[in-house]
Design a protein that fits this description.
single chain, alpha+beta, six-stranded antiparallel beta sheet, 19% helix
Length: 129
C-alpha cells in the first residue's frame, strides 16, 4: 500500500474529546479516494458510490500527522474499488481501515461509463525520458 497524502491534525479538526473528529478523517479519505481515482481512470468525473464498514482502531491528537494509504482491490467495468488505511505517522498505529471504497467513473451525462482500465498505474509509468 502506498501512502500518498499526509494531513496535520489542527485544532479545527478535533472533536469535544480533543481527538481527531471522525468526520474530518472521512472527508480527507473521500477526497484522497477521488483524487486517486481521477488519476487511475484518467477522468475528473467520478463519484463515491460505497464505503464498507469503517473500523476506527485508534485516535490522533492535535499535532499528529495522519498518513492516508490507498490500494486498488478491483477494477470493475465502470468502477474501481479501493482499500484504505489511515495511520498515525508518529506512532505508526493504524487509526482506521476501510476494506472497500467503490468509486464510479462517470460520462458527460453523469451516468456510469466503462473506463477500460484493468491495472493500477503510477505517474512514473507515464513519464518519458
Amino acid at each position: 500500500m502506498n501512502f500518498h497524502t499526509r494531513k496535520w491534525v489542527k485544532p479545527e479538526d478535533l472533536n469535544p474529546n480533543n481527538n481527531l473528529f471522525g468526520g474530518r478523517l472521512l472527508q480527507w479519505i473521500d477526497e484522497e479516494a477521488a483524487l486517486y481515482t481521477t488519476i487511475q481512470l484518467d477522468n475528473k468525473k467520478i463519484a463515491t458510490k460505497f464505503m464498507s464498514e469503517i473500523n476506527f482502531v485508534s485516535s490522533a491528537k492535535q499535532g499528529d500527522i495522519v498518513e492516508l494509504g490507498l490500494e486498488v482491490v478491483q477494477f470493475g467495468r465502470t468502477s474501481i474499488t479501493l482499500r484504505c488505511v489511515a495511520r498515525n505517522k508518529m506512532t505508526r498505529k493504524n487509526i482506521l481501515t476501510i476494506e472497500n471504497i467503490t468509486m464510479v467513473n462517470l460520462g458527460e451525462d453523469g451516468k456510469p461509463k466503462p473506463h477500460g482500465k484493468t491495472k493500477e498505474h503510477y505517474i512514473s509509468d507515464t513519464l518519458t525520458d
